[in-house]
Amino acid sequence: MSSRFPAAVAEPSLAARRRRPLSGRLGSRSAPYLLVLPATAVIGAVLGYPLYYMVRLSLQHYGLFQLVKHKGEWIGTRNYSQIFHDAVFWHVVLRTLGFTVAAVSLTMVLGTLIALLLAELGPKMRLLLTAGLVFVWATPVVVAVDIWRWMVDYEFGVLNWLLTFLHVGNYNHHDWFVNPWSGWAVITALVVWGAIPFVAITVFAGLTQVPRDLVEAASMDGAHPWRAFRDVTVPLLKPIFVILTSLSIIWDFQVFTQVWVMLDGHPGTDYYVMSVYAYTNSFGESEYGLGSAIALVMVAILLVVSFFYIRQMVRIGEAE
Amino acid sequence: MSSGIPVAPVPVAPAAPRASQNVPRRFSRRRFARRAVVNLVGALVFLVMIFPVYWMVATGFKRGQDIFSDPPVWFPYHPTLANFTDAIHRAHFWADVKNSLIIVGVVVGLSLVLAFLAALALAKFRFYGRRAFIVLIIAVQMIPLNALIIPIFLLLSKANQVDKLSGVIITYLTFVLPFTIWTLRGFMLGVPKDLEEASMVDGTTRFGAFVRILLPLVGPGLVATSIFAFIQAWNEYIMAYVLLHSPEKQTLTLWLATFSTSRGTAWGSLMAGATLTALPVVIFFVAVQRKIAFGLTAGAVRG
Hints:
The complex is a heterodimer. Chain A is mostly helical. Chain A has two domains: about 55 residues, no CATH class; about 230 residues, MetI-like (MetI-like fold). Chain A has 14 helices and two strands; from the N terminus they run ααβαβααααααααααα. The longest helix of chain A has about 35 residues. Chain B folds into two domains: about 60 residues, no CATH class; about 210 residues, MetI-like (MetI-like fold). Chain B is built from twelve helices and two strands. In chain B, strands 1-2 form a two-stranded antiparallel ribbon. In chain B, α8 runs antiparallel to α9. In chain B, about 50% of the residues are buried. Chains A and B meet through α1, α2, α5, α6 and α7 of A and α1, α4, α5, α6 and α7 of B.
């Protein structure tokens, strides 16, 4: 990135010195540090400190007694050995992974397909579909969960009626959440439905930036449209796909609200994902140390994914 | 924070229209058929995506017997405002609206001031540690906040800030502030430096240049960023759920839970309440979506 104000850079060369008075108003070399200081301090206080505190908590026994005293009891890595020997924990990890893989792949594939569809549509139809996507995108998560709860209501759910009407099966008076598989299908549908607009609109925006002549050259050379897409468009859009996929993984892996509100704040153990498990251990069982350990394992897993995202973002940042 | 919240780090202008639109079309029959199929699929996708939102609004305007009906009544032929009246007159609605507005207002205001300064440094200065700060801002947005709620709750309860709006405000800064810094930085980068430099050559001070050139140009970016920050804070659920217990101190997203009791759910009123909760967000979102939605692609595609 080229510097916008050479005067603010480093050693004052002759040219820089001449421009010095200009930057002098906002301060000299210390100016940028003074500018970022307040924000850095706040981020350190509201994010950094809790993060450090969570690591400490995970090494402590912190139950109701400790909650009253506001002081944990050091137990080393016992919380970790407890969760690693806990069969439920490994089930929860697997369930979270399974859900994430399903939700993210569905989101990415459907989102990309809709983006390609947007590129093919005429202007009016495209405007309509974009508007629809934006409305879905704008719907608050809690509101979306309530809508879906209503659509799959035991007695008057419109989806139940529709599926019965279409002879998919008999869904009259059907409780979707008795069977965890069908319950998870509903939750996945809700999450994917809510996540598609962001992916579709972003990929579409990327598609519009792919140079037309490149794709045309490929098809001129006799490449099948699918091959042109795979060999020309996809590589060009790779940065966008990396960013979208990692963001989707990060969001879906920590899914909480959709599960929690969908099941009225009482999810059965079949509906435990990592954030729900960390939550119930902390706020349900009052085992805050144990809950922190579970949450930290979640953070550690997501750290791997974040790495790819951050690397891509920094690369793009440098291109500016 | 939960999934589905729009995060779009780099704002740019909407993409240019596709070149193909300028190419004259020959409407051969095959092309026409293809066009029809594509439009049909587009309409179908539109219907599937929009239906849940439609169903919420439609249910909100329906009479009781039309809500609980089999087969479903597809359109509120006898529209009524009864559900909305009921929702508004439920306990704590106005108190919770006020709480949401206070929390969101303070969080957005604080974030905007802090972020503006930091973004200014990032966009207009080169300094040692700049890159590290950028990585930090990107990285902290990746921390799963659903995990952080445990230490935050314990720390706030130590500081006697549980069940207080101030505690929630502090908490919301964790996700609103980094996002705001990053987005504002993008808007500031978009200001052509020639303009700024031109004014400096004319002898204005840097502060003068800042006020006359940068501020009006960044203005729309400031508005868009604050609206996005507003949406994120307004929609938040889990932090408020853990931190606010008294019904008169809760936010609107928590208020929606009061429609479900052990005796069942008042679906009509709930859908009316959900419509009311979503309304400000949808209006704001539609207003600024184009400004930020195309953001991620900035500089990402290099042909």
